[in-house]
Specification:
Number of strands: 8
Radius of gyration: 16 Å
CATH topology of the domain at 12-65 and 93-132: Elongation Factor Tu (Ef-tu), domain 3
Mean pLDDT: 86
Structural class: mainly beta
Order of helices and strands: EEEEEEEE
Strand order of the largest sheet: 1-2-7-6-3-8
Number of helices: 0
Helix content: under 10%
Shape: globular
Largest sheet: 6 strands, antiparallel, barrel
CATH superfamily of the domain at 12-65 and 93-132: YaeB-like
Strand content: 25-35%
């Protein structure tokens, strides 16, 4: 196998009331607050075409994650068996990329207010993509992400 490395440059940062990983919601739908995305001025013109009410997929770099873990107890529940990180939504993984489905609530220059968002204050933003109609449904899901086995 050929090992290659890539550089990912953040395009902005998240400003959120969430500052403690232990008390933060695991998913946006579990009581996460709204937050502001501040994009760097060098990429701000890329926001053109985004409107209030748009659903977006926010891609983040989960900078506080443990990149050496390959197995976790889903949802930090020790009663669940250790499971490979690629079968979970754990932030702990070799490349801690976060995917967050959010709705745009407000636009102010190079800032978007979105919600709900479970990412921590200071989390780097890697990309923002629109939710496409054909990908709007969840489809088949891994039951282990929600229900214990």
């Amino acid at each position: 196998m050929i090992e290659t490395s890539y550089t990912i440059k953040p395009i902005g940062v998240i400003h959120s009331d969430l500052t403690n990983r232990e008390t933060a919601p695991r998913q946006g739908s579990e009581g996460a607050p709204d937050a502001w995305l501040e994009l760097y001025s060098t990429v701000a013109e890329g926001l053109e075409g985004i409107a209030v009410g748009d659903e977006m997929v926010l891609v983040t770099w989960l900078h506080q994650a443990d990149r050496d873990l390959l197995k976790v107890h889903p949802r930090r529940d020790k009663n669940r068996p250790l499971t490979g990180v690629f079968a979970t939504r754990s932030p702990h993984r070799p490349n801690p990329i976060g995917l967050h489905r959010v709705t745009v609530l407000e636009i102010a220059g190079n800032k978007l207010k979105v919600g709900p968002l479970e990412a921590m204050d200071g989390t780097p933003i890697v990309d923002i993509k629109p939710v496409l109609p054909q990908s709007a449904s969840l489809g088949r899901t891994n039951a282990n992400l929600i229900n214990p086995r």
